[in-house]
Amino acid sequence: MRNVRNNSRKTAVVCRETHTSLTYGEFNSRVNSLLNGLHDLEVKKGDRVAVLYHNCHRYAELFFALMKGGMVLVPIDFRLKDREISFLINNSQASMVVVGEDYIGVLPSPVDIPTVRSFICIGKAPEGMEDYEYLISSHPPQEPQVAVEEKDLATLYHTSGTTGVPKGVMMTHKNLISIATNTLIAFRVTPDDITLHTSPFSHMAPIWPLLIHFYMGGSNVLLKKFDPQGVLEAIEEERITTWNSVPVMIIQLLNYPDIHR
């Protein structure tokens, strides 16, 4: 809220896929409208909401709407099979699923995910699903009044399950605040920083850069997926100053034939 008050016209999020750029004021209005829409769908504090989608400004909106509403984000990797997805949804006892239209084909049958009461589709919504953009456009941007405490559950991620079935890993708001605070101290992020997101939000790793750059009033540039050319173009065009990556990404970048361009 500090950045909305003091830097409402500063760029908060740039989505390269949809060519969308949102200021802090615009982003906050969409987040509030989304949360008010979720309340109308009877999603309440403590409810688990599974998200099956790729990096986009809409994923960031969902993240902050759920945080504001005291709801629990359950990220689902869109590369999983339907039986794996149904396990994660059932294990988390999600009452809502938000799904991109590209991933409806891997979404389990409602019979296989009995805890889910409602669905939201990002994109062209089929019958029986709420339309994400309509939900935002049809609800007011007023700040919802929800009392959220540090001890409240914020996210429910899952381990990869390489030694068995995936295990749920719960994080409270205090956990997220601690991660953001420690990272800010270690990396000295400033309001002038512009960070690039290439790792999928279904993993924990890209969440702390999102948190700290929003906290400091920096800007976030989102790529749908990692590819060397897309990264290099984003770095040049968006004037990226920070990037959270892993060794395999850096190796691909260094080996890219046109890197010197």
Please give a structural write-up.
It contains nine helices and twelve strands. The chain has helices spanning 2-6, 24-40, 57-69, 82-92, 132-137, 173-187, 207-216, 228-238, 247-254, and strands at 11-15, 20-23, 48-52, 72-76, 96-100, 118-122, 130-131, 153-158, 168-172, 194-197, 219-222, 242-243. A five-stranded mixed sheet has the order 2-1-11-10-12, with helices on both faces. A hairpin with a 4-residue loop joins strand 1 (11-15) and strand 2 (20-23). The chain is globular, with a radius of gyration of 18 Å.
Based on the model shown, name its key terms.
alpha/beta, 261 residues, Rossmann fold, 9 helices, 12 strands, 5-stranded parallel sheet
Biggest sheet overview: 5 strands, mixed
CATH topology: Rossmann fold
Q: CATH superfamily, please?
A: ANL, N-terminal domain
Extract low-pLDDT stretches: none
Task: Spell out the blueprint of helices and strands.
Blueprint: H1 2-6, E1 11-15, E2 20-23, H2 24-40, E3 48-52, H3 57-69, E4 72-76, H4 82-92, E5 96-100, E6 118-122, E7 130-131, H5 132-137, E8 153-158, E9 168-172, H6 173-187, E10 194-197, H7 207-216, E11 219-222, H8 228-238, E12 242-243, H9 247-254
Parallel strand pairs: 1-11, 3-4, 3-5, 5-6, 6-7, 10-11, 10-12
Antiparallel strand pairs: 1-2, 8-9
Quick overview:
The chain is an alpha/beta fold. The chain has nine helices and twelve strands.
